Request: fold
Amino acid sequence: MHEPLPLPLAMLIVFGSAKLLAEICERLGQPGIVGEILAGALIGPASWMDCSNDTLKALSDLGVMFLLFGVGLEVKSSELLKVGAKATLVATIGVIVPFFAGWGILRAWGAPQIEAIFVGASMVATSVGITASVLSAKSCFTKSPAKLFWPLQ
Reply:
């Protein structure tokens, strides 16, 4: 097995390919997050890029922090309080449905309980981040229906 890539080089490859594919997707009329997900699938742990688990974990943690922090900057607490009860219901469903969908599918496939729980939790985190990113990219984040998704962050 090869030596893992140094963190700066791995970050350059990940961020560069994500930005490039996001730009291509945006020019094709799709949200940039589609290109970023595609970049992750192309250079992820099952592909040609040999990174240590620590490197991948650091990159994934940075990505989640940047995504949710950036979207959180657009939320005004006064407007969040206006959508209160409805937003709480949407947030609750937005956590429960992806979790049980991921968990249920893996259990149906015969996966161990711990793996099913992990996939369910991953589905929750992914659905929240992608919803927020798409709403933000389409400049819909401050429109009334989108405000219902704010508590998910």
Notes: Residues 84-108 form the longest helix (25 residues). The radius of gyration is 17 Å.
